[in-house]
Amino acid sequence: MTLTEKDSQYLWHPYTQHKTSQTPIAISRGEGALLWDENNKEYIDAIASWWVNPFGHSNKFIADAIYKQLTTLEHVLFGGFTHEPAIKVAEKLMEILPKNQQKIFFSDNGSTAVEVAIKVALQYFFNKNEKRTTIIAFENAFHGDTFAAMAASGISFYTQAFQGMFIDVVRIPVPIKGQEQTSFDALENVIKNYNCAGFIFEPLVQGAAGMVMYEPESLAKLIQICKDNKVLTIADEVMTGFGKTGKTFAMDYVEADPDMICLSKALTGGTIPMAITTFTQEVFDAFYDDDINKALFHGHTFTANPTGCAAALASVELLQTQEMQDNIERINKSHLTFQKKIEKHSKVITARTLGVIFAVEIKSDSEESYYGSMRTKLYNFFIEKGVVLRPVGNIVYILPPYIMTEEQLQKVYSIIEEAIEMV
Ligand SMILES: *Cc1c(COP(=O)(O)O)cnc(C)c1O
């Protein structure tokens, strides 16, 4: 049996209707921005394998750090114990996070980073004897697939089977161009009419919605409204973190600091599943008490896994090299040049760029759904041409690993141009 035949016998894939979906491609090797399948066909990974892999596949520097940690201390429980890798990660993050972030909590993936933030927001007010139970989130948000994260997410086909089983979430419009005041007014109204504990948002770019972008000034204003009303703010930087927007964090563009930040995806350079939620001292202090009931009773078995910590530390060190910063700048410049060219195309509605993130919306005759027919046609075309891109409906985006060469990037652009001609 081939790998794909064995796969269909045993495996259940994420976001997949197995009856109608195509068979998956078996990947056997990766290096830099490239992947090879079992027949040795080469693919350019133009979305960094779901946005996790900025420094390239099979990165030696991170691999060495992992091996060294594996043969020193691979894991130890974090309840009642601590270790140097966790402390080093904390010290490193304190250097680069917004200055008001003072405490870090480890978990395993983006959804749990969000889950922790939402639970902390709710318990923060419980601990203070204030009745605040509503979470505010953006329309079309994506915050993950565990229950609280799912409740905060607004892309309905991910969550429709669970309607009525969620914590209380009220949604406001994203302050995209022309809708800023509507968004501010909606936030003021929600805060007036509900007992709001927290506001969770993807700062500046809504990833899963199709790289929807909005301005830092608008986010600063929304955060200020929350601060004026003592509503906690949660920046979900799971996608945007670690250089994707051109700065270390999207919040670095925003002149207002959030109370909590969620990190995962690129945290370990795409090697080991790990996530972090960070907090202000003020949030931490609401749990600091003689009363054990005020503690945060949340944890995961693999919390602060030392091997994951070693990978995170190596990743952040790579991000901070001049070479990687130059790569990010180069990709951004190329994106802007490509955007200027492509946005004039008669089949293009609009194109946008922030940092290494580029997206183009293609005209379509019918209302294009998330997994609609144009999407399938585009996806198959890219795969056939040896480029991994996962369009969201009629939106094609690129989120390349920072080490992607200029030649590879230009090839991705020209295949996108071909695809626009084709559909
Ligand atoms: C991917 C993502 C998540 C969920 O992370 P998982 O690791 O898939 O659980 C949460 N928030 C944002 C913004 C994401 O992009």
From TrEMBL:
Cofactors (names): pyridoxal 5'-phosphate
GO BP annotations listed: biotin biosynthetic process
GO terms, molecular function: 2 iron, 2 sulfur cluster binding; adenosylmethionine-8-amino-7-oxononanoate transaminase activity; dethiobiotin synthase activity; pyridoxal phosphate binding
Coarse class of the protein's main subcellular location: cytoplasm
Keywords, comma-separated and alphabetical: Aminotransferase, Biotin biosynthesis, Cytoplasm, Pyridoxal phosphate, S-adenosyl-L-methionine, Transferase
A GO CC term assigned to this protein in UniProt: cytoplasm
Origin superkingdom: Bacteria
Subcellular location: Cytoplasm
Pfam family, one: Aminotran_3
This protein's pathway: Cofactor biosynthesis; biotin biosynthesis; 7,8-diaminononanoate from 8-amino-7-oxononanoate (SAM route): step 1/1
UniProt modified residues of type N6-(pyridoxal phosphate)lysine: K265
Residues marked Participates in the substrate recognition with KAPA and in a stacking interaction with the adenine ring of SAM (site): Y15
Catalytic activity from the UniProt record: (8S)-8-amino-7-oxononanoate + S-adenosyl-L-methionine = S-adenosyl-4-methylsulfanyl-2-oxobutanoate + (7R,8S)-7,8-diammoniononanoate
Complex and partners: Homodimer.
Function: Catalyzes the transfer of the alpha-amino group from S-adenosyl-L-methionine (SAM) to 7-keto-8-aminopelargonic acid (KAPA) to form 7,8-diaminopelargonic acid (DAPA). It is the only aminotransferase known to utilize SAM as an amino donor.
Family the UniProt entry places it in: Belongs to the class-III pyridoxal-phosphate-dependent aminotransferase family. BioA subfamily.
Name this protein carries in UniProt: Adenosylmethionine-8-amino-7-oxononanoate aminotransferase
Organism of origin: Flavobacterium reichenbachii
